[in-house]
């Protein structure tokens, strides 16, 4: 194992230092606060999003009993690198397209929201990638996600705040496509299992995400109060439904922590697309209920019917935790548009077509580029770790037992 440590010592530090040097140089040329309007985003709102991506997702992914250091540590690494990369890509687009400059607080908030896509994708390949592969995946995914948003904004006229909510959809399917290129772990592998302690830490991350999710959905929305209101009630109903379905679907009639861990967040993911425009809270509550149902039932269908024939291993269940609720949210947004604008039939078809088109474009770009990225990450250059070393902190960290 020592030879592998020397390999990472010769690659990881220098890759990080190289990227950081490039970031510093580009920041020098691209960013200036001269003539920038005052921010409409408060520092507490940014902090809520920052808490989500650092604390929330950092602990959310600690359910594997021998991969806790890597889950939290690598999450911090890809977030801080991803935020810088996201700001630079956004800066390039502003410069090339001659768009108006935004203040630094709004730029860093948008970058923190964007990097959520990478964190979600990491969950699909959790325990199977080394730090070099994660860093490369972070840079590639951030660039592609911004290109996807740009296509949706310019060609399909999707509002900026709604296109940003595609992070869950894009992150889930990009991660699944990357994961399809990695070898499956042994079904009998004990290292991929959880313990009561790791489940408790993971649930702590879920609680962080649950508490701050209204801020995530509202931070870039035009009608922030409505977005907060609808998101909270969608989350509340999805949490209640998760407890109900958990006890109804288990053989022994007991609650299962994996159900609560994933389904209580589903309402926040689903309602994100339309949280700012839903006029009645009961609509958000119905979406929260449906999201929780599709998450728990989807976990059974995907793990038993779809994943085995596709030979797809989704380490932390991002498909049914984020992917399926995001699909439901995109479809619900189209239905709500039809209901809201049914009297204006001539323009309704184009409006719905553009939103459905944005949904299809996002998934297509995520799957294609994710699969290509997975193939690249499996090149010998990136020293793919053997299946026997999956889900193992000791391969990267000093661990004392």
* Largest sheet report: none
Portion in beta strands: under 5%
What global shape is seen? globular
State the fourth-level CATH superfamily.
Answer: Ammonium transporter AmtB like domains
* Rg, alpha carbons: 21 Å
- The first-level CATH class is given as Mainly Alpha
Protein name: RHD protein
Membrane topology: Multi-pass membrane protein
Organism: Burhinus bistriatus
Family: Belongs to the ammonium transporter (TC 2.A.49) family. Rh subfamily.
Question: Could you write a compact summary of the structure shown?
Answer:
By secondary structure, the protein is mainly α.
Overview of this structure, please?
This protein is mostly helical and 401 residues long. The protein has one domain: Ammonium transporter AmtB like domains (Ammonium transporter fold, Orthogonal Bundle). The chain is built from 15 helices and no strands. The longest helix is centred in the last third of the chain and has 33 residues. The relative contact order is 0.14. The N terminus is likely disordered. GO terms for molecular function: ammonium channel activity. This is RHD protein. InterPro entries: Ammonium/urea_transptr, NH4_transpt_AmtB-like_dom, RhesusRHD.
Secondary structure elements and their pairing?
Elements: H1 2-9, H2 12-30, H3 43-60, H4 68-97, H5 104-124, H6 131-154, H7 160-164, H8 167-179, H9 196-218, H10 224-249, H11 257-263, H12 266-271, H13 281-310, H14 318-340, H15 345-377
Helix pairs in contact: 2-4, 3-4, 3-5, 3-9, 4-5, 4-6, 5-6, 5-8, 6-15, 8-14, 8-15, 9-10, 9-11, 10-13, 13-14, 14-15
């Amino acid at each position: 194992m020592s030879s592998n440590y020397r390999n990472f010592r010769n690659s990881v530090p220098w890759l990080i230092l190289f990227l950081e040097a490039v970031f510093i140089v580009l920041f020098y040329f691209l960013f200036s606060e001269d003539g920038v309007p005052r921010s409409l985003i408060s520092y507490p709102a940014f902090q809520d999003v920052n808490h989500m991506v650092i604390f929330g997702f950092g602990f959310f992914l600690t359910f594997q009993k021998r991969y806790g250091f890597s889950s939290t540590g690598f999450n911090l690494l890809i977030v801080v690198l991803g935020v810088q990369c996201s700001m630079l890509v956004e800066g390039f687009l502003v410069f090339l397209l001659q768009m108006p400059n935004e203040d630094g607080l709004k730029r860093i908030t948008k970058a923190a929201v964007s990097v959520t896509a990478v964190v979600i994708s990491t969950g699909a390949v959790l325990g199977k990638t080394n730090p070099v592969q994660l860093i490369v995946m972070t840079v590639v995914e951030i660039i592609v996600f911004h290109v996807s948003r740009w296509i949706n904004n310019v060609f399909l006229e999707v509002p900026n705040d709604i296109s940003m909510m595609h992070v869950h959809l894009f992150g889930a399917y990009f991660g699944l496509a990357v994961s399809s290129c990695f070898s499956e772990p042994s079904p009998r592998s004990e290292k991929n299992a959880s313990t009561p302690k790791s489940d408790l830490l993971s649930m702590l991350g879920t609680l962080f995400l649950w508490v701050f999710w209204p801020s995530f959905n509202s931070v870039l929305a035009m009608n922030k109060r409505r977005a907060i209101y609808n998101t909270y009630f969608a989350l509340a109903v999805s949490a209640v439904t998760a407890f109900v379905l958990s006890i109804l679907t288990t053989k022994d009639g007991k609650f299962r922590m994996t159900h609560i861990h994933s389904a209580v967040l589903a309402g926040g993911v689903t309602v994100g697309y339309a949280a700012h425009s839903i006029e009645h809270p009961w609509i958000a509550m119905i979406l929260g209920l449906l999201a929780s149902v599709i998450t728990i039932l989807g976990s059974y269908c995907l793990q038993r019917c779809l994943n085995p024939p596709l030979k797809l291993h989704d380490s932390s269940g991002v498909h049914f935790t984020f992917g399926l609720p995001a699909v439901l949210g995109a479809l619900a947004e189209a239905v709500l548009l039809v209901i809201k604008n049914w009297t204006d039939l001539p323009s309704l078809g184009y409006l719905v077509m553009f939103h459905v088109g944005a949904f299809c474009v996002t998934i297509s770009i995520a799957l294609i580029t994710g699969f290509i990225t997975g193939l690249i990450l499996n090149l010998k250059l990136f020293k793919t770790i053997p299946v026997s070393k999956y889900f193992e902190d000791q391969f990267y960290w000093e661990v004392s037992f």
